[in-house]
DNA sequence: CCCATCAACTGGTCGGACCAGTGGACTAGG
DNA sequence: CCTAGTCCACTGGTCCGACCAGTTGATGGG
């Protein structure tokens, strides 16, 4: 093809590379190469000024970007200079929260995502769990039961603890983070509605029952059943807040 | 509980909140509230200086952070001021890549995530697809077959097109984006290894065969089978790059 | 030997300055 | 009337110098 032969000298749109960006790149490269490791310190801003041969404003803009990406942390007065941080999922979480908060995202989509993630985590957990971890999960069940007589928020916290325990067992930090983020966003959207629910005690009891069944299936090592029950539980718990026409995809995730 | 009664006056560790951070927060809040929407413009830096009552350096540091998070874009000379950007998966992918590069995220975890997401997308697609969308998927299969005789990268591109078509049908943009991001990260990690694989043609043929089976299951409306085949395909495709002890959780996602 | 003092740094913020661009208004030419 | 060219107010990018509050480690007195 004629156009194919020209691919070699195709031009790319050129956007100006700003000075602070090249500083960020240099530091990130040094980090990728291993010349810079977590725990080490960067030279002070004024030293960086002379090393990079730019003004302090430029150095500071680069540092602010690195800081917001979780790469370094600056503390005023620290004579050792900015610290290289170990990698943390914090910024990833921030980005995912942003993604989940974009208004084009339906409550239905969020809950579908939770059903998928939570189901997968439980499926993995029923295969990978140790006896101690199983005991840990059962302990969170006890706490949930106790929380029913206290408060809805207490129950909600215990519920979160259960799901976090499961996510830990899945040994997949991506699942863990996604679950955490989506749960937070969903709760932010409808926590007020749930709190005002009339028959909350009945809901809590039913939810507890479902969770117990999940743990039972995990104990038996039946990941498939455990995941199905978990998804069903999420559906029962949230479906009433989802507009009826949007419930179809959720049901598609339950039926096998 | 005694400690429980004190929870009300528990103190939290306080770290200095810098001026530029509060600017970032205010703008992000306005965006979350909907007072600011993609496509709109921010006032010029000098206007922001007077609105926030801080210096231009501070405003600029805030803008640099927002810019590195993909929230705004500044162009020199633009009289309309910085532009609010629509959400882009770019920064998300950057963070995930960063984590993957330091083994904070295992290749095994990434692939497990892909198996989960892709499986779920296909399960949803087999329920929600229209006849036109089914035809669209079959079209991508044709392109994959044609690409086998061209190039591995061409095949890879066609494969991406297939998965994107499926993700679209799932009508869940969260799944869509997550899939896209993780796929990009995985490819960045092992694309070079795959390219050097000896029997790449055999692999491509096998992969095509699997994809065809998936489409067949989608046509039949058997979401469960379709998802299982898809996960199996991903496992066969990537397992050899995963350290043997890490393959156990992946297999847990295939067995039902 | 311990502890209070102090001075040399640190990062955070400010204000002003200059530059190379952009884009809209304005004007001369059709 | 419309078009094409010029021009200028304003944009963001960068630099400079200054001040402040805070930390830290050395210093010196008990």
From TrEMBL, chains A, B:
SUPFAM superfamilies: GntR ligand-binding domain-like, Winged helix' DNA-binding domain. SMART domains: FCD, HTH_GNTR. Pfam families: FCD (PF07729), GntR (PF00392). Residues 17-87 form the HTH gntR-type domain. Coiled coil: none annotated. Keywords: DNA-binding, Transcription, Transcription regulation. CDD domains: WHTH_GntR (cd07377). PANTHER family: TRANSCRIPTIONAL REGULATOR, GNTR FAMILY, UXU OPERON TRANSCRIPTIONAL REGULATOR. This is FadR/GntR family transcriptional regulator. It comes from Kribbella sancticallisti.
């Amino acid at each position: 093809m004629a156009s194919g032969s020209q691919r070699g000298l195709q031009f790319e749109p050129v956007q100006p590379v700003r000075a602070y960006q090249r500083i960020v790149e240099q530091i990130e490269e040094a980090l990728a190469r291993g010349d810079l490791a977590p725990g080490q310190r960067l030279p002070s801003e004024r030293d960086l000024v002379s090393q990079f041969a730019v003004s302090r404003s430029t150095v500071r803009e680069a540092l602010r970007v690195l800081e917001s990406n979780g790469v370094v942390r600056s503390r005023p007065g620290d004579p050792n200079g900015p610290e290289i941080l170990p990698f943390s999922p914090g910024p990833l979480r921030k980005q995912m929260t942003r993604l989940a908060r974009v208004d084009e995202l339906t409550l239905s989509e969020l809950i579908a995502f939770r059903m998928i993630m939570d189901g997968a985590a439980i499926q993995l957990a029923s295969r990978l769990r140790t006896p101690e971890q199983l005991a840990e999960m059962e302990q969170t069940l006890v706490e949930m039961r106790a929380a029913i007589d206290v408060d809805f928020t207490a129950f909600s916290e215990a519920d979160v603890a259960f799901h976090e325990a499961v996510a830990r067992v899945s040994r997949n930090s991506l699942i863990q983070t996604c679950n955490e983020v989506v749960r937070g966003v969903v709760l932010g959207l409808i926590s007020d509605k749930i709190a005002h629910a009339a028959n909350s005690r009945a809901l809590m009891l039913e939810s507890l029952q479902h969770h117990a069944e999940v743990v039972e299936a995990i104990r038996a090592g039946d990941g498939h059943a455990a995941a199905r029950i978990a998804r069903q539980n999420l559906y029962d718990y949230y479906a009433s807040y989802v507009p009826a026409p949007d419930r179809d995809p959720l049901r598609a995730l339950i039926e096998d």
